[in-house]
Amino acid sequence: QVQLVESGGGVVQPGGSLRLSCAASGFTFRGYGMHWVRQAPGKGLEWVAVIWQDGSKKYYADSVQGRFTISRDNSKNTLYLQMDSLRAEDTALYYCARALYNGAWYGHDYWGQGTLVTVSS
Amino acid sequence: DVVMTQSPLSLPVTLGQPASISCRSSQSLVYSDGNTYLNWFQQRPGQSPRRLIYKVSNRDSGVPDRFSGSGSGTDFTLNISRVEAEDVGIYYCMQGTHWPPITFGQGTRLEIK
User: Fold this and answer.
1) Is B49 in contact with A59 (Cβ distance < 8 A)?
2) Residue B67: enclosing H or E segment and its boundaries?
3) Which of A55, B63, B77, B104 has its CA 20 to 30 A from that of B54?
4) How close is the nearest chain B Cα to the Cα of A65, in Å?
5) Which of A14, A1, A94, A103 is nearest to B35 (CA)?
6) Distances in whole angstroms, Cα of residue B78 to Cα of each of A30, B42, B74, B75, B110
7) Which residues in chain A have their CB less than 8 angstroms from residue B33's CB?
8) Residue A27 carries which DSSP code?
């Protein structure tokens, strides 16, 4: 069965860095674009970033552009999110999710359980 | 960016009664291939989101047939024919046609009266 398991969350000071990981299993990881979506406490869903199946293309939300870097290692079936220059408003539960692409994105059909990032001094 | 606007934001429903959630987009979600990439998600309390409907009206495997999606262009609806206790949660629409960014609606909280 498809599984996505995030890790790496924690408490970090403003301006600090954190690297999230998402271990995938139960499907052909290299066959899917992979996304990060976040949810601030008590708030809605916000798309963060996507990476192409082969890692050749990456796109970001304006709110994280230049501070976050999405990457993947298809040999390890793992997705990453390097988060630098963190701000209080980055505090959220971060989900990894997979989606099919056909020029446009189908909705994310599998999600992880999320990893909590708290940016606070 | 495409803005997704849901209504109502709060939806109290009696068990066994129908429920309807509206989602409007700031521009047409029809893609150049003729498909419309509008999707619906359910997020139960304390759980990750779960996709219910993709491309307007296609129900995901395991989703009860009391859930249905409809609409076109910029106006879409998620209908629940008879609300059950397990349907409590927040429902989000999401568009994947005009990206980046992929955008979600604000969410509609369904509760039992």
Assistant:
1) no
2) strand B67-72
3) A55
4) 11
5) A103
6) 32, 11, 14, 11, 12
7) 102-104
8) S
- Tokens in use for A14? 């403003």
Contact A90, A117 (CB under 8 A): yes
The greatest distance separating any two alpha carbons of chain A, rounded to the nearest whole angstrom, comes to: 43
Pairwise CA distance, residues B106 & A65, whole Å: 22
Query: Token pair for residue A82?
Result: 């390097």
Say which DSSP state B29 is in: -
Rounded CA separation B78/B80 (Å): 7
Residues in CB range of B34: below 8 A, 6 or more apart:
none
Beta-carbon count within 10 A of A62 CB: 9
**Strand B58-59 versus strand B108-112 pairing type:** unpaired
For residue A112, what are its two tokens?
């992880």
B72: Cβ contacts below 8 Å, ≥ 6 apart: B30, B36, B56
Is there a contact between B40 and A107 if contact means CB atoms under 8 Å apart? yes
Identity at A110, one-letter amino acid code = Y
Instruction: Compute φ and ψ for B87, nearest 5 degrees.
Output: -85, -5
Task: Convert the pLDDT of each residue in B9-52 to its tens digit.
Answer: 999 999 999 999 999 999 999 999 999 999 999 999 999 999 99
Q: Chain B closest CA to A25's CA: distance in Å?
A: 17
The secondary structure of A55-107, three-state, reads CCCEEECCCCCCCEEEEEECCCCEEEEEECCCCHHHCEEEEEEEECECCCECC
